[in-house]
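Lab meeting, item 3. Inverse folding demo.
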């Protein structure tokens, strides 16, 4: 299977790209909740790749929060972590529709997923709100795989380019039909993603 190589939006096109993604997501929804946020992120990762999606989604959410008069609601670590998580799972499957992706990875539909990786104090810190902070509880599955592989690879960019293999036993979610997951994509106990 050949995957299309995503491209970042051109200079000055980030705002338009975010607005188009937002319009696409909101065409089938009355409100912008967590599922819609994940859907927007899924679209951004598939169309532009993880590195560009981090900037696109983060800038778009920050701009939206400022426009709504609540700039303090923007959180840099949370925004990037969600793009990284969605990007990790996008790189594992070539699912062409968001409903299928959401069914395959139901844990991504939980707003509390990040609390498996970050303590409340880490996420509440001013450093995490303003910039990237690594997980302080449990590493993300690609970080753990990178450590086991002797430090090969360099995070999201390598994953997006398909250069960091993740061993089958370290995938974050069972495939449909697995006994532990009841056929609905349950969590591997050791991965806790």
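The presenter then showed the designed sequence:
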């Amino acid at each position: 299977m050949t995957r299309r190589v995503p491209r970042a939006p051109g200079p000055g096109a980030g705002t338009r790209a975010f607005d188009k993604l937002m319009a696409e997501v909101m065409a089938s929804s009355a409100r912008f909740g967590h599922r819609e946020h994940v859907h927007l992120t899924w679209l951004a990762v598939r169309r532009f790749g993880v590195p560009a999606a981090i900037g696109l989604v983060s800038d778009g959410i920050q701009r939206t929060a400022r426009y709504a008069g609540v700039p303090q609601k923007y959180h840099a670590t949370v925004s990037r972590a969600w793009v990284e998580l969605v990007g990790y799972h996008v790189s594992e499957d070539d699912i062409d529709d968001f409903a299928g992706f959401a069914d395959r990875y139901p844990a991504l539909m939980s707003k509390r997923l990040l609390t498996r990786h970050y303590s409340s104090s880490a996420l509440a810190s001013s450093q995490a709100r303003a910039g990237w902070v690594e997980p302080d509880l449990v590493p993300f599955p690609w970080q753990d795989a990178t450590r086991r592989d002797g430090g090969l690879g360099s995070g999201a960019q390598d994953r997006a380019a398909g250069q960091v293999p993740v061993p089958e036993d370290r995938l974050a979610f069972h495939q449909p039909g697995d006994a532990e997951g009841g056929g609905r994509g349950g969590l591997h106990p050791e991965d806790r993603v």
